[in-house]
Amino acid sequence: MTKHIKISDFLKQHLQGEHGVALNAILSDVVDACKKIAVAIDKGAVAGNMGSLGSENVQGEVQKALDVITNDIFVEACQRSGYVAGMVSEELVDVIDVADEHKKNGDYLLMFDPLDGSSNVNVNISVGTIFSILKSASKKPDLADYLQSGAAQICAGYALYGTSTMLVFTTGNGVNGFTLDADSNEFLLTHPNMQIAKETQEFAINMSNYRFWREPVQRYIDECLQGEEGDRKKDFNMRWVASMVAEVHRILVRGGVFMYPTDTKSRSGKLRLMYEANPMSFIVEQAGGASTTGSQRILEVQPSGIHQRVPVMMGCKSEIDRIAAYHQVTA
Ligand code: AHG
Ligand code: MN
Ligand code: MN
Ligand code: MN
């Protein structure tokens, strides 16, 4: 059996430089949090955690019990390192100011979606956790310190609770994937230097929104559906898991595009910039892909709010370039 390096050893070997010590400490807490979340999800039905709560989050979504449970796990675990000054969670309206007793050297900011794809938890389909790390200009960050473009991220990653539990992240030097080994309860390096295939014939989009899309998106999907007889001269396949983490992971492993574009129902799109679009765009670009709102590179969007939504189209670079070109035509 191949000897895989443990994530803790990988972090020590690869995280050098200005942020090395802090990222080592923060990512160790993220790893602990994701292990605990994997257990909470796994026990879901048995522990009675699969239902919805009466509460709504700031997104106007009915919160699942596991949305809140995973949020609390992440907040508690990730304030331990002393390097995190503040956090933003999909499930909390305001920023979380990490208490002074936890903030030895805290000047990093952690944004996260504790449970991505939560509509899947009670039907036993893959879900995930997404996180993004920024450097704060101050040890007492205010809102403006969080509103940095995605290009400023120093680390981004996700956990995927699927047929196996994986953790995939980048710090700007490529993308590496780790699989949780049940025997040792260690994340082991199984997917070094993940790269997105240069060509694809697979797209992921929620087709039920077709009538709400703008023309460039309808044109792109129409061409995919025309198959070999159409302009693209090839047949396409479609996937939709309703869990961004699962879609993006599939794209890293076997190519494709993932699209949640703007539509007439939600002008800014559905997905959130700070803890879904930005971290996933950093990962996709580091794996040789591209990521656009249709009118600009997602990592260049200047945030105006911590829960701001953006249209998202990411994946295989040649496809994203084509989609962006179609948007230019109608701009
Ligand atoms: P979350 O569960 O964190 O709210 O995110 C769900 C998102 C994303 O993961 C997924 O791609 C998309 O919502 C699915 O949207 P539809 O339910 O409209 O298909
Ligand atoms: Mn949600
Ligand atoms: Mn999400
Ligand atoms: Mn979520």
UniProtKB/TrEMBL annotation:
Pathway: Carbohydrate biosynthesis; gluconeogenesis
Cofactor details (free text): Binds 2 magnesium ions per subunit.
Localization per Swiss-Prot or TrEMBL: Cytoplasm
Family annotation (InterPro entries): FBPase_C_dom (IPR044015), FBPase_class-1 (IPR000146), FBPase_N (IPR033391), FBPtase (IPR028343)
UniProt KW keywords: Carbohydrate metabolism, Cytoplasm, Hydrolase, Magnesium, Metal-binding
Cofactor entry: Mg(2+)
Reactions catalysed: beta-D-fructose 1,6-bisphosphate + H2O = beta-D-fructose 6-phosphate + phosphate
Keyword match Hydrolase: yes
Chain ranges of the Fructose-1-6-bisphosphatase class I N-terminal domain: 16-192
Pfam families linked: FBPase (PF00316), FBPase_C (PF18913)
E.C. number: 3.1.3.11
Superkingdom as given in the UniProt entry: Bacteria
Residue span(s) of domain Fructose-1-6-bisphosphatase class 1 C-terminal: 196-327
Gene Ontology CC annotations of this record: cytosol
GO biological process terms on file: fructose 1,6-bisphosphate metabolic process; fructose 6-phosphate metabolic process; fructose metabolic process; gluconeogenesis; sucrose biosynthetic process
List of residues binding substrate: 116-119, 206, 270
Residues the entry annotates as binding Mg(2+) 1: 90, 113, 115
Positions of Mg(2+) 2 binding: 113, 116, 276
GO molecular function, one term: fructose 1,6-bisphosphate 1-phosphatase activity
Assembly description: Homotetramer.
HAMAP family: FBPase_class1 (MF_01855)
Family, as annotated: Belongs to the FBPase class 1 family.
Alphabetized PANTHER family for the sequence: FRUCTOSE-1,6-BISPHOSPHATASE-RELATED, SEDOHEPTULOSE-1,7-BISPHOSPHATASE, CHLOROPLASTIC
Name of the protein: Fructose-1,6-bisphosphatase class 1
Organism: Methylotenera versatilis (strain 301)
Gene: fbp
